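Sorry to interrupt, but I need a hand with the structure work. Go ahead and set the record down below:
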Amino acid sequence: MTKIYVYGAEATYAGEGDYEWEAPTLGATHRLMLFLAQEENISREDKATSELARFGFIEVHVAAGRPIEVESLNDPRMHAFKKHYEGALSEGSSLVWYP
């Protein structure tokens, strides 16, 4: 069964990636949250690092991931993350970056 894990990270945007998206400024370092669909029920920092590289990030430092319980998205404080959870389910991943 597919689970969605969320990984906190810090990385530098290098500008060359596999996705077209509203990316940050080239060379800028940002804090990130990666929502990643995975079959394994364990934290996979290696997969998270690879996925962030596909978004164009280098010098990636990833913290251990944790699964998101879908029920938690009913909490009003988690509402903003619902679209990222759904994006990860449909596309495999979703990324939030902080300026």
Observations:
- Strands lie at 3-13, 29-38, 57-62, 66-67, 93-98.
- The helical segments are 45-54, 82-91.
- DSSP finds two helices and five strands in the chain.
